[in-house]
Specification:
By secondary structure, the protein is α/β, with parallel strands linked by helices. Helices cover about 15% and strands about 35% of the residues.
Length: about 220
């Protein structure tokens, strides 16, 4: 019998490859079964998920992610797409989290930082909200912002450069990884004075400098620290 759902691991997450011909409700049932069966393998990993093989509405994407989290211990950090317009869409599906410690994936904080607020942590941190101008986040490890950034970010605050920063909309006032700083470029506008469409970005170090690039699956597949 043909597998209607196939799970494949890649360096940053899991690809869910789906049969385009079976009914959608049957697909959801099959996805639930696959992730139940794979629970002991993936355990409580925090991963990106790529949904491939058939066209889905945003509602269907969210339903599939709900099925995954309801039938496994996996923490879905983001949804990845091959489509250029889609790129990566971070989905705040952990909507009941509020600065929870987890031995493997660090900390979660739900809410935006503003008015001079700051977070300092020895662990990696995922923030479900914005980091506004005047606020700051300091982590000895990695930082993921499921929102926009106009404040200050410092990953590898203990001195290590082997860390990264990810955000949906990245326009920090200061960005540092270890002792290295990103050269902040003036924000561009279009001819009509509008800001260009934002894309998720990742900042990391390479050859003694901080680089910031748009996130693609191909970049993450080759990403090493």
């Amino acid at each position: 019998m043909k597998n209607s759902v196939i799970l494949k691991s890649f360096s940053s997450g899991i690809s869910v490859i789906m049969d385009s011909s079976i009914p959608y409700e049957e697909l959801l049932t099959e996805i639930a079964t696959k992730f139940k069966d794979a629970d002991k393998f993936f355990k409580d990993a925090a991963v990106a998920v790529s949904l491939e093989g058939r066209k889905l509405t945003e509602k269907q994407e969210r339903e599939i992610l709900d099925v995954i989290t309801q039938n496994s211990r996996i923490k879905v950090l983001c949804l990845m797409g091959r489509d250029e317009d889609k790129n990566i869409k971070f989905l705040g599906i952990q909507n009941n989290l509020n600065l929870q410690k987890d031995e493997n994936c660090g900390q979660f904080y739900k809410g935006s930082l503003c008015d001079g607020q700051s977070i300092e942590t020895e662990r990696s941190i995922i923030i479900l909200g914005d980091v506004c101008e005047g606020s700051s986040v300091y982590s000895s490890k990695d930082i993921v912002i499921l929102g926009s950034v106009t404040g200050e970010l410092h990953a590898g605050a203990g001195g290590s450069v082997n860390h990264f920063i990810v955000a949906l909309d990245m326009h920090p006032s200061v960005l540092k990884i270890g002792p290295l700083s990103l050269k902040i470029q003036p924000e561009k506008t279009t001819f009509w004075g509008r800001k260009p469409k934002s894309t998720p970005m990742i900042a990391y170090t390479c050859d003694g400098e901080v680089l910031m690039k748009s996130i693609t699956k191909e970049l993450l597949d080759d990403f090493n620290l």
